[in-house]
Amino acid sequence: DVPVVAVVGRPNVGKSTLVNRILGRRAAVVEDVPGVTRDRVAYDAEWRGRRFTLVDTGGWDPDAKGFMARVAAQAELAVAAADVVVFVLDVTVGATDIDEAVVRILRRAGKPVIVAANKADDVRGEADAAALWNLGLGEPHPVSALHGRGSGDLLDAIFAVL
Ligand code: GDP
Ligand code: MG
After folding, report:
1. I want to staple 78 with a disulfide (CB 3.0 to 4.6 A). Which of 6, 18, 56, 143 is the partner?
2. Is the pLDDT score of 58 beyond 90?
């Protein structure tokens, strides 16, 4: 069976940009406005000759009532269907309360989690990524979805647990 890799995280951390980077084409919807990606979108992808299904998530409005509950519900659905979860955070912001809520969901689900410390565009960002060890989800992998830094190492880490 083709493994399913779900990309989760709060809006605007760069999930869709990362999905595009991995796919190598501009497929997922990326906008500056948080929460523009509708529902969950699955793509056929490949890394080092191995096929996998890459699932982008989103679709919630952070200003809406019950936002936290919707983030939680989305994450839970995506995680339930995944073999491995890529949890994306924004190193320029650090871990927020919403991120912490997602961490609790991921812990409960018991699926393998790869922490993607995104927006690590430069050396300073890579240093900031180390702070995410505190999440207790293992090694944070610094990536810049925008510039492509670290995306190969991230994919190797994903396949190491598959
Ligand atoms: P999503 O809501 O998590 O899917 O986030 P998006 O992929 O739509 O990205 C949100 C914003 O962050 C966009 O303006 C992206 O260009 C920007 N972004 C995404 N990845 C990076 C990155 O690695 N570095 C920087 N500086 N910006 C990024
Ligand atoms: Mg998106």
Report:
1. 6
2. no
